[in-house]
Design goal:
Layout lengths: L3 E3 L4 E6 L2 E4 L6 E3 L4 E6 L2 E4 L3 E3 L4 E6 L4 E2 L2 E2 L23 E4 L6 E6 L8 E6 L5 E7 L4 E5 L6 E9 L2 E9 L1
Parallel strand pairs: 1-4, 2-5, 3-6, 4-7, 5-8
Antiparallel strand pairs: 9-10, 11-12, 12-15, 13-14, 13-16, 16-17
């Protein structure tokens, strides 16, 4: 939750691994003349009643597609680049699932690291404005298929929670 005021001459950056909520519930957030604010989140940015940008103030908010937050990568949030081939990338020490083919025109697969086969795993797919478009809870397998056929071309985020591990990757629907 972001509240308060940003004064003239102040440059501020707000980060969130999931959602930034601005003002609301009787609070305010004001960007005053000469102030500059950037907000970067992985899933949602919600501007509620009480959000004000005064003339001469600057507010820029966006959803990150590469894990970049206010001039740094957030620890624990690594995002891979889009693979532009049909090859299946291998697992590394950093990543516990892979997505292929990427880009895709319809069907794609998520393959889990074999060691996670018997763990409860939650797979969520979000569009670029942070709306959840699909969610599955899975266990007992290491491969799952998904369909993006009914959705518009663009970039989608895949978040996988397994045990105490969370990873987010992007997929491109062409």
């Amino acid at each position: 939750q972001v509240t308060g005021a940003v004064d003239q001459g102040v440059n501020e950056c707000e980060n969130a691994l999931q959602t930034i909520t601005v003002a609301g519930n009787g609070t305010t957030y004001r960007v005053l003349n000469g102030a500059s604010v950037t907000m970067i989140a992985a899933q949602n940015i919600r501007f509620l009643d009480g959000t004000q940008v005064y003339p001469g103030g600057y507010l820029h908010a966006y959803i990150t597609t590469n894990g970049q937050y206010c001039c740094t990568l957030f620890p624990g949030m690594m995002m891979t680049g889009v693979e532009m081939s049909e090859s299946i990338p291998g697992f590394t020490d950093k990543f516990f699932f892979r997505v292929y083919p990427n880009p895709t025109s319809d069907k794609f697969y998520i393959e889990m690291e074999p060691a996670l086969r018997n763990q409860n795993t939650k797979i969520q797919i979000f569009n670029m404005i942070g709306e959840l478009i699909e969610s599955k809870e899975v266990i007992g397998n290491n491969g799952y298929s998904f369909f993006l056929g009914k959705f518009a071309p663009g970039i989608y985020l895949i978040q996988v929670n397994s045990g105490d591990r969370i990873e987010i990757k992007k997929i491109v629907k062409k």
